Amino acid sequence: MELSKNYIPNETEARWYQHWLSKGYFKSTPDEREAYTIVMPPPNVTGVLHMGHCLNNTIQDILIRRARMQGKNACWVPGTDHASIATEAKVVAMLRERGITKSSLTRDEFLAYAWEWKEKYGGIILQQLKKMGCSLDWDRTAFTMDPDYYKSVIEVFLDLHKKGHIYRGKRMINWDVKAKTALSDEEVIYKEVQSKLYHIKYAIEGSNDFITVATVRPETIFGDTAVCVNPLDERYKHLHGKFVFVPLINRRVPIITDEYVTLDFGTGALKVTPAHDINDYQLGQKYNLEVIDTLNDDGTMSEAAQFFIGEDRLDVRKKMEAVLSEAGLLEKVEAYTNQVGFSERTDAMVEPRLSLQWWVSMKEIATPALQSVMEEAIQFHPAKFKNLYRHWMENIKDWCISRQLWWGHRIPAWYAPDGSVAVAANANEALVILQEKNASLNLSDIKQDEDCLDTWFSSWLWPFEVFKGLSNPGNDEIKYYYPTQTLVTAPEIIFFWVARMIMAGHEYMDQKPFEHVYFTGIVRDKQGRKMSKSLGNSPDLLALIDVYGADAVRFGIMISSPAGNDILFDESALEQGRNFNNKLWNVLKLIQGWEKRIDSNLDAHNEKFAMDWFENRLSQAQQEVDVLLNSFKLSEALKTIYSLIWDDYCSWYLEWIKPGFEQPISKEVYDKTVHYLNEMMHMLHPFMPFITEEIYHLISPKQDDLCNKIAAPIGQANTDIVAGGELLKQVISALRDARNKNQLKPKDTITLHIQTGNTETYKAIESILCKQVNATSIAYTNSSIDNTIVVAVEKDKFFIGTSIELDATALKATLLADLAYQKGFLESVTKKLSNERFVQNAKPEVVALEQQKQADAIARIATIEESLQSL
RNA sequence: GGGAGCAUAGCUCAGUUGGUUUAGAGCAUCUCGUUUACACCGAGAGGGUCCGCGGUUCGAACCCGUGUGCUCCCA
Fold it and tell me: What is the pTM of this model?
């Protein structure tokens, strides 16, 4: 078959992916083999493939394909996350385009739209992963809102509540006074507005003096329960421990001190309104201040405000200027620009408001999760994240799990009209609980909590619930696949997700969820900026795959992806991948071209050295790659394979065994060469699955597929043989360099004399050496040869004879540079050796080594000086 | 404000318990070359104050202290 000039990926990739699918290679069912399980971090159901997914899933595919080729039962589970905030936002935007507002819909109507949207657009990303070659078990595709999964999430809520880990607590939320609803942080849009900064005077108790406080929201003073100053502020030191009176209502409140207050903003004195400001709320908690809510849910002043009851807070703000001024309590008003939050839905100015939310108390469930990482039952790669994890887990804060959204798992709590609450699996069960207090209640009296659970409250169950470990406890699959082997994820969600999965695993499966966690880097652009939609610096992956091929994209992203560091993505890495594809393709073409000239009787004597060397070099590289992959150094493993193929195999081995033009090749050499290529395709397959499968089949007829072929055991490399090859490379490079420096054209032939103590070594490689440096003859000598170019490699000298007129100046310059280097080196070694303390204190082998270096340098200098004289 | 991490060639990074030459690789750059797999190629070359300062040591890219710059997480 005639092969195309360059490799064309698209057709090949689609064909092989279909073939693998039709053979069912990616499917896994429990059997007697060792399991290797990865659960894919579920992308948002709204997601489209971006570089982060590409990196993440390529890594997982490499691990899972390697495991499969090691004969393990590899199981990689795909799925998506309902992503409550992101999805709800998308659905709201879609509805808005159709002229429908969320507030005009009932909860059920909205959810119907959301599901419709999910069925239509959800999981596009999973289809895109097929293009990447990801070997996922598609039959297992899971979703965090599947019916069983939903039930499990609710069950976990009920269970944690029963155990006393879930409680209700106050939290500052964003309140939309028009929609009369809480907003998630994502639904608040911050805008810069021109405000006024009011300087208001608070009378000091037992004095005629005032302390002046600056605020942009004067209407909130009715909720003030303290005034706070920085303890270091000299202006207010005399007021520590005193009390002041809130203007108009004359509430007596303390002056407290806290570092939170900045000295140079406003007057340096802060009014503290715990009910209506998040920072004030925290201060209030710290100093046990009273919380006075002065707003109704429609944004009008409540009875607690005492003044302006029922009037809108913004109207009151305007009126306050006159009222305070009249009372002589307004010192001045300044223009002030600040950021204010507005509702994305109604454009109303958002009011911070305290609200009762659901919380998980973390201390207790975090303990085993901290332990399993510290004791390395779960290993982090790179290990540096252990510190970060420990620090966070030791200072863990309670987790607010309610979100003011509809799309998600609705909180299983019901309220009676009197505000009493029951946590239960359904309304009927809740009613029973609530009737204990009030027997006259019926179903229509009670209302379910409007909020949803935080997305992470469902995804923390992922590693076991994809096997129905909670909804169908102790089933065959959970017993076989759990704990999983490796989790691959981004370090930014170590706390949101990784830590919580570990907690849930211990709490519900009584086991860690995974053995290894591999943290990828963050994908950035060339300038180091994080890839994001708003910057528009995220490339279209499918377009890149079309241009370069999936293998090249996988190569490009992995080669620039050192473990644990961010990756700076640059298209030139993809070019490198494409070029590598092409190199592989041309290897195939070259070897295939020899097929019709195979001669079974031809002797392989001249190629023996090359074959022995490569066989051992291959084993050595396989060993190295194995070690690197075991320690999750994927990028380095790929570099090792790349260099083995490109440098050792193509640039050296193939050149050494290549038959002359139209010349036959011995069957032994041909078979070995094909065998090595097969082995290398095997090594490379997890990284570049498509082209390796293609070449594996094209190079020789095959019954099996590379995709699920089990690797042969790795041979033991003979280091002497490998070193012999390295010496040969070194000699060839040195001789080529000398040729180059003396401006010999590739076509110009040379004669070679070698002065060496190891004639036998060179006898074995004479034919290769002649071919590689274009020498017509090789002879051995005991002394210098006149009128030649002299090259020294280790202790051996090479004399290049040529009929071309030599320009001695270039040669001389090179020799002089080398001489200077060697002399400098000798000096440093000699200095070290003449230091008595070094000789006395250093380990004997280190001293011996230095002496060896010294002797070598002296010999080398003598050779160079001799060469210079003969010029 | 609290915490974690990073700093080595133009760029991205290796560099193991401190001693295998005066620090390596890939990409990029430069020179030469169209030789019968490949110009998406081949053969070569140049390129470094290992962030600054101080210390420990016979010996520091590596250990300790300190300064500077950058990144991330939490508030």
Answer: 0.88
